[in-house]
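Inputs:
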Amino acid sequence: MTFLELQKISKTIGNKVILHEIDFKVGKGEIVAIIGPPGSGKTTLLKIISGLLAPTSGRIYLEGKDITNTPPHERGFSMVFEIPPVYPDRTGYENIAFPLRLKKLNEDEIRKRVLAVADLLGIRHILDRKPSTYSGGEYQRVALARALVTEPRLLLLDEPFRNLDAKIREAMVSWFKDLHKKIGVTIIYSTHDPLEGMTMGDKILVLLKGIQKQFGSASELLARPTDLDVDEFISIPALNILKGYIDECSESGVKLSFKNAMLKIPKKLLKCERGQEVFVAFRPHDVKIDTGEGVGVFKGRIININYTGRNQLVSLETDDTIIRAVVGKDVKLKIGSTVSIIPSIENLRLYDANTKKLLE
Amino acid sequence: MLRRILTNALMWLVLIIAVVWTVIPVMWMISLSFKTYGEWRTPSLLPRNPTLDNYIMLFSPQALGIFIAYTAILEPIVGPLSRTLIISATATVIAVMIGFFTAYGASRYNSPGPFTLFFTLLTRMLPPATFVTPIVIYFTTLYLIDNIIGLILLYAATTVTYAIWILKGFIDAIPVEWEEAALLEGASPLQVLFKVIIPIARPGLVVAGLFIFLMAWTELLFALVLTNLNVPLSVQVSKYVTAVGALWGVQAAAALLSSIIPLVIGYLIQRHLITGFTFGLVRG
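Outputs:
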């Protein structure tokens, strides 16, 4: 069932288009993650949903009711901002109680609700302290408690874990998923980190330069990115992109040619033209390396090896470009040696060189 | 090693000179205020026969017969003291209030533009003596001569620029998101101001207030020109040394009294200066 629906939301400030026709639906209890690099319009979009900003055009519906012109506090949404609203002059308790005091609840009710949400988030022991004594994680939890204490219909989170160290962030993400299971509130969540977004979100909205590039589940995104920009943005480590030409189209597949290599893909394309310029993209995880002779499509010279825990990230110089491959840490490789590179054919995607759209 | 000793010695020397430089006049003032009439012009730092006569003189000039010739023109210190308290406190409240709202507007809405804001500093760029005459003319027309309301308005107007600039810095440091969060939770713009901004910027309000209070407390030039009978404390202190005669000891006592009150006020509000203006975890 659709809980929240955005219809062609656009925002322009002066001549600058901040958001262009954002259009998606959120089901009740779902987490939608908005992912995009800094400056892509994530915060603006969240502020429009919250009502703090008005869209230039487009409509927002909550359970079928048009709320585009409803003032922010009547929407019953909460938002945790990038700089979390934890006021430094008062204790954690007073910070969490702040929205309840605005609603003029009586002191017993306030106390009951603040303590309940503090227990839920495991921050009861820090309620009497001032924010200057908090760690990064505690600070975020107090901000979250303040947002949850009003029992919002929709929770908007703007890069909530941005200021945390990598390890704490990882812990917070899984802790947060557990919390979501318990309280079941609908969440729209923004992050610049595609991995974090894909871990958190039931649905993911890819927002690049104010344009909604794709909306779907993490697996849809990984399997079928709509265009090269999306593929590039969500791939970590960075995507391998090769420019080539279509040499031959047939029922059985496509033949591609590169500077010094040929590649045959057993995939039938809907539209296929000889001589069409294409980008071939594959993730470093989908590349195998063979130290033997002759089997690979590309030959490459190892120019760099980085150890990333269980794996090693190998950079290879080929005739066309530099290809990166993730290889198990036990494989013995030497910088300077030449190896064969075998991209996994099934996990390889073709994009039109002009439109950057996925070719299927 | 030798170099370190020398550096240390030099440092101590500079410190000692600085301390002596600032403390000696104060010590001399304290000592003088306890000296008897005959001792006023002697150079000793400790009074030989400590007396409270000078202080008694301050509060009831007629109590000790010997100075009656001079004191006939002097009123008890309580009058000027209470006037200065009222003037300084009221001017501070007015200047800080106007300054706060101006700073808030300048910080959040970028109005009235940075250049205009800069112009408010103009009153502090000219030597005050250059606009004494126009002020006297205005104040005469407005019946504000020898009226504490005149001094209140004047002090508030000439110090408001400090309040604006000090508070703008504090308000700029408060993220707009903190206001938006409160708006989202149903706060009215006024509630945002009074429940979010003012409490968080309180140290700034205290700093600006203290600063302006001290300026108003010690101002002499305009007070001297614009008052006649209803003199504030700064003028009163200067009155003990006149063409008729010099009451050095009484003046020292008055000066001491005049500096103790700001000291006490400063001490009482210093905890507001120290407490929590730490945005701690907000990292870029």
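Remarks. Chain A has two domains: 2-224, 240-244+275-359. Chain A touches chain B through 30 residues (CB under 8 Å).
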